[in-house]
Prior knowledge:
2 copies of one chain form a homodimer. Chain A has helices at 9-16, 20-28, 35-48, 54-60, 77-92, 106-118, 135-142, 166-179, 195-210, 227-239, 252-265, 298-313, and strands at residues 66-70, 96-99, 123-126, 147-150, 160-164, 185-189, 220-222, 246-249, 274-278, 292-295, 322-325, 328-330. By secondary structure, the first copy, chain A, is α/β, with parallel strands linked by helices. In chain A, strands 2-1-3-4-5-11 form a 6-stranded parallel β-sheet, with helices on both faces. In chain A, strands 7-6-8-9-10-12 form a 6-stranded mixed β-sheet, with helices on both faces. The longest helix of chain A has 16 residues, at 77-92. Chain A is elongated, with a radius of gyration of 27 Å. Chains A and B meet through helix 4, helix 5, strand 2, helix 6 and helix 11 of A and helix 4, helix 5, strand 2, helix 6 and helix 7 of B. The structure holds a DNA duplex. Chains A, B: Residues 7-61 form the HTH lacI-type domain. Chains A, B: Keywords: DNA-binding, Plasmid, Transcription, Transcription regulation. Chains A, B: One of its GO terms (molecular function) is transcription cis-regulatory region binding.
Amino acid sequence: MAPRKTVTLKDIAAAANVSRAAAARALNGYGYVGAATAERVIEIAAQLGYRGNRVAQALRGGQLPLVGFVPGDIQNPFFAQIAHDIDAQLRQSRQSLLIASSAESVAQERDLIESFRALNVRGVIVAPAASPTRPHLEALLHEGVPLVLIDRAVEGLPCDCVSVDNAGGARAAVGCLIAAGHRRVAVIHDDQRIVTARDRLAGYAGALADHGIALDARLIAVAQSTVAQATEATIRLFRQPDPPTALFTLDSLMTKGALLGLRALGLSVPRDVSLVGFDDFDLATFTEPQITVVAQPVAQIGPLAVRMLLERMRGSTEPPRHVQLPTRLIRRGSVAPPGGGAAATDSAC
Amino acid sequence: MAPRKTVTLKDIAAAANVSRAAAARALNGYGYVGAATAERVIEIAAQLGYRGNRVAQALRGGQLPLVGFVPGDIQNPFFAQIAHDIDAQLRQSRQSLLIASSAESVAQERDLIESFRALNVRGVIVAPAASPTRPHLEALLHEGVPLVLIDRAVEGLPCDCVSVDNAGGARAAVGCLIAAGHRRVAVIHDDQRIVTARDRLAGYAGALADHGIALDARLIAVAQSTVAQATEATIRLFRQPDPPTALFTLDSLMTKGALLGLRALGLSVPRDVSLVGFDDFDLATFTEPQITVVAQPVAQIGPLAVRMLLERMRGSTEPPRHVQLPTRLIRRGSVAPPGGGAAATDSAC
DNA sequence: GTGAAAGCGCTAACAC
DNA sequence: GTGTTAGCGCTTTCAC
């Protein structure tokens, strides 16, 4: 209980009968120190439980061994895995990780970046929230703090970025549906708030255009990215006269909602409607049939982002790189030809 | 790009033609400062983009506004939610959160605590990994660093703790199975590595004892907490001669594994076997039928832990509190009487 | 090889 | 009211 006074360099210097300078040299193993002295100092330090004071070190020389990470939401498995990977990678370079979710709010993101700046972090990884301008990120760059964007690119921000090919993935997903014979492919999207949603929607439109299918506004539903809203949107979509025969959902929460909505409607997948979702998720392989999805290379994002960040922290001044990782269509059992045709185990999809 | 020299208190003092002390007083709003001076200083500071240097402040006075959190695994939704809640709560007291998973390894936990100590964090929240001794946590306490344990209590460690009633929850779960008429209730558990698993297993044994049912070693399977291992364990359990009629799983990963194993065996829930899992999870309401589970009050853990921590950080010296939150049995559709009896929509469970 | 001394940026007595 | 001064714990020239 007694908040024992922390042992400082001065203490161990005194105990070893050397100057603080000599002690520091011994402990950090630089400069000239007599082998005997060094050994003695090190032993005494160990004995007294000396542990150095990063704060003082940071004040003197550089910065604290701190890196900040701002995901949209740490509860999202996508970000949770990335956080885990960043954590694991960063630990090897003995950096500690500050994590704080922006909850997709720019204001919150700004505050977080602000506090990171005050702490003088060595670098920051952020999944930027949607916003027309981003002065806080620019300020970071301006101060020379290494910054890596993940998941969402930001135009005009000269920094490294790791994202996935959202448009391409969506195009492939919808293409697969079209290849199976669908013409009336619905989509649920998320009000365009986030860049990724916009790109995925663009991919949807692109796939339709590729095959000369006109966009039909009645097949495009808007919902916030929650299970409940997606469920409702699905129900609206399929209660229309002349309903769609297939559905493409822009993220895994929406895919879950779609599943629930379809179930509520008594519609069976893939017999009554075919379904493809963006983003793989654990539930996708538990359903019967399993759900066909566009999988993102989540496991690559964190490690790559860290590698880029460390390079910058080491002083690299290469021009910013924007890596766009490819997605992968995982064909499972949720796609079949329209009109309750044959089960499509081995269809084009 | 140009790492513009950070503006320091000295700079703004010079620009305002006052001493550093006066400037500091104006900026931090303490002590006597002339209103005019204060205003001028503040304006100049804003103009120059002064932002103070927490590191220097910390060196001088107290500590950095840092709190550490060591979950077992940030990817586990249980910990992800807690992390989210801690983050949200802590933000209000303007603390930044360091998060690093122990991966259930004491060695890693020790290293993390070590680095937190070096950073002089204000407090630590940890889900302690299984270990006979915990010198690093004791050291923390000894230094007077506030520490709150979550999810797992540690005997003999005089600090606050928030856990759930694992034994009681398990007892209720198994009791429910027994009430439905089951006598041969199997359990899959996790090698006793973690305290929670041990308590849940004790609850299982307790429920059996309550009803005069003898423990049967052949009904107790060991598996690590992974879907794959639990799947195998389930298959082993139900391939025996005289197989169980009900199954209790100790966490959600295992429940998923059990579902898969049962499906592989062609066994239907709850007709052929009844199932109750510890820990609620999203999939539990997607399956047909939905799975009966023992739900933990996850949403309470983080906020409560933070409240306790903040109190300690404010200097409270109350005796340590150990709060054990109650669990709740959520009766869904995975329990029925044994022997393919009637569907148990409204059975005792 | 080792010690003395000068700060890093900030705060808080204490003097004026 | 405001300035002077003395450090917080550490690193790092620069003498010796």
